[in-house]
C-alpha cells in the first residue's frame, strides 16, 4: 500500500475541504457541469475552479469539455482506493485492539489457539 | 481558535475510524498497557514482528517514538509522533503530523491523530480508539448539513459499481 501513499495524501487533502466534499457528494448522483455544481455555492466561479482542479489532480474526478460546458464525472476507482485503504486501516486497528484485549485479560497478546489469528 | 481539551471535536465518519468495545479489565490495566514501554511492546504489533519503544514521554508535546524489527537486529521506523493530550488514566492523544522533534511531518502513508479514551463500565472498561485522518487544520468547522446523506449515496453507488 505504500506506493499509494502520495495518492492517498492528495485525496485526503482534497477531501479535507467541505466545498470539495459537497462536490463529490453531488457527483455521486451522476455527472454535472461546473456551472451546475457552482450554482448552490456562494463562491466565485474562479475560486470554484480551483476546487475542481484540486479534485481533478488527485484523480477523484475527471472533467470533459464540450463546447463551452465543462462536465465533471466522479472517478469511482479512486474512491474505491480510498475505501479499501480505510478498510485496511480498520482491520489493523481491530487486530491491535484484539491483542490489547488479550494482553490485559490474559497477560499475553498471543492467541490461546494460534489458528485464531488468520 | 483556542482549542479546549473538553471541546467536542469534529468527527468525519467517512475519513475517521472509531473502534469501541467493552474490555473486561480495569481502566488502569489498559492505561498501563498503552503507557508502559515494555507492555506496549508486547501487544501493539503482531508477532513475530518485534517492537522497540525509544521514547514515550507522557506529557503534551512529549515524544512518542517506536521502531519495529523482523529479526531483532535491524530496526525500522514505526511511529514518530508527539502527544497532544494526556489525562492520566483515562485519555491520551498523539499525532504523527508533527514529529517527535516538533518538525511538521508528512508521515507515510498519511498523517493521523489517534485518541484513546478509557471510560468506566460495569463490566470493566469502555474502550474507544478514534483515528482521524487527513489534515485536521483544514477540517470543516461544522458538519455540512445533508453532506453525509450525499456521501452515503456515493458509497452505495460505489458498492453497486464494484459488485
Question: Can you characterise this structure?
Answer:
The complex is a heterodimer of chains A (118) and B (163). Chain A has 118 residues and is mostly helical. Chain A starts with a helix and ends in a 12-residue tail after the last helix. Chain A has helices at 5-15, 18-27, 34-38, 45-57, 76-106; strands at 32-33, 61-66, 69-74. Chain B is of the alpha+beta class. Helix content of chain B is 20%, strand content 36%. In chain B, helix 1 crosses helix 2 (37-43). The radius of gyration of chain B is 18 Å and the shape is globular. Residues 1-7 and 135-159 of chain B have low confidence and may be disordered. Chains A and B meet through helix 1, helix 2 and helix 5 of A and strand 1, helix 1, helix 2, strand 7 and helix 3 of B.
Structural class of chain A: mainly alpha
Number of strands of chain B: 7
Cα distance spanning the termini of chain A: 20 Å
Main sheet: strand order of chain A: 1-3-2
Q: Helix count of chain B, per DSSP? A: 3
The largest sheet of chain B is: 7 strands, antiparallel
Query: Largest interface, counted with CB-CB under 8 A?
Result: A-B, 45 and 44 residues
Mean pLDDT across residues of chain B: 80
State the end-to-end distance of chain B: 44 Å
The helicity of chain A comes to 55-70%
Strand content of chain B: 35-45%
Q: What does the overall shape of chain A look like?
A: elongated
Q: Rounded to an integer, what's the Rg of chain A over CA atoms?
A: 21 Å
Low-confidence stretches of chain A: none
Amino acid at each position: 500500500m505504500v506506493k499509494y501513499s502520495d495518492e492517498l495524501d492528495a485525496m485526503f487533502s482534497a477531501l479535507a475541504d467541505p466545498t470539495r466534499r459537497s462536490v463529490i457528494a453531488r457527483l455521486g448522483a451522476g455527472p454535472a457541469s461546473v456551472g451546475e455544481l457552482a450554482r448552490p455555492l456562494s463562491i466565485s466561479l474562479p475560486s470554484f475552479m480551483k476546487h475542481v482542479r484540486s479534485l481533478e489532480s488527485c484523480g477523484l474526478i475527471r472533467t470533459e469539455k464540450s463546447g463551452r460546458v465543462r462536465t465533471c464525472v466522479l472517478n469511482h476507482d479512486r474512491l474505491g482506493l480510498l475505501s479499501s485503504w480505510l478498510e485496511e486501516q480498520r482491520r489493523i486497528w481491530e487486530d491491535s485492539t484484539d491483542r490489547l484485549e488479550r494482553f490485559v485479560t490474559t497477560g499475553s497478546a498471543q492467541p490461546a489457539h494460534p489458528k485464531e489469528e488468520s | 481558535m483556542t482549542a479546549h481539551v473538553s471541546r467536542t471535536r469534529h468527527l468525519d465518519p467517512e475519513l475517521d475510524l472509531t473502534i469501541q468495545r467493552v474490555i473486561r479489565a480495569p481502566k488502569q490495566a489498559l492505561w498501563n498497557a498503552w503507557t508502559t514501554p515494555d507492555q506496549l511492546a508486547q501487544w501493539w504489533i503482531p508477532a513475530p514482528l518485534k517492537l522497540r519503544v525509544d521514547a514515550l514521554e507522557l506529557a503534551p508535546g512529549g515524544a512518542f517514538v517506536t521502531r519495529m524489527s523482523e529479526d531483532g537486529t535491524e530496526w525500522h521506523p514505526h511511529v514518530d509522533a508527539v502527544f497532544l493530550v494526556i489525562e492520566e488514566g483515562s485519555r491520551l492523544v498523539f499525532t504523527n503530523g508533527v514529529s517527535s522533534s516538533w518538525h511538521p511531518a508528512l508521515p507515510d502513508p498519511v498523517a493521523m491523530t489517534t485518541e484513546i479514551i478509557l471510560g468506566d463500565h460495569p463490566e470493566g472498561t469502555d474502550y474507544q480508539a478514534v483515528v482521524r485522518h487527513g489534515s485536521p487544520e483544514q477540517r470543516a468547522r461544522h458538519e455540512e448539513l445533508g453532506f453525509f446523506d450525499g456521501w452515503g449515496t456515493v458509497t452505495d453507488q460505489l458498492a453497486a459499481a464494484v459488485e
